Amino acid sequence: MKEKIIKKASELFLKLGFKSITMDDIACEMCISKKTIYKYFCNKEILIEESTAVIHKEVHEIIDSIIAKNHNAIEENFEIRKMFKDMFKSSDASPIYQLKKYYPEIYHNVISKEIDQCSQCFRDNIEKGIREKLYREDLDIEIYVKFYYTLIFHINENTSSEKEAQKIELEALEYHTRAMATPAGILELEKQLKKFTTY
Q1: Cβ atoms of 35 and 73 closer than 8 Å
Q2: Residues annotated as DNA-binding region (predicted)?
Q3: Residues 153-184: pLDDT tens digits?
């Protein structure tokens, strides 16, 4: 039952935001009593903590499965962007923005783990792009990793609308890629942008 509650809570938090959803809403959605939820979670913060841990794990499992498909470095980034677009497409309020605003302590715990994993992911992608001659050889990889995660996390932390955040993140991905790309990389970027806008 505990896993079922976390699963349903995670879905609702992602769809409607961490602040908007109450324990009553979760109980109602699951057709169980609120007392049943409190049997496993003494308060909403504990449920949010466990739900964010599950969401974090699922997101990184999907990212790993995209990377395993061995797309080129630029396509890989666009496939990951598509995954986030699908995952949050029914959201109005940005879940990350709400988490930071209303549950800052949980947010900081999540973000410290996220920055480590994302930095490694960005680093691997840049190294791959250099090998594929899609990114320039002379890049200072650590600086570009820092640039990109600063951009992405800043967008998420400060944009309350999920739709707006997605739009700006796509612009950030284009900006990041153009800054690193070789002429062959620019051609691949244009191809991916065209595909993404028809998606």
Answers
A1: no
A2: 22-41
A3: 889 888 888 889 889 999 999 999 999 999 99
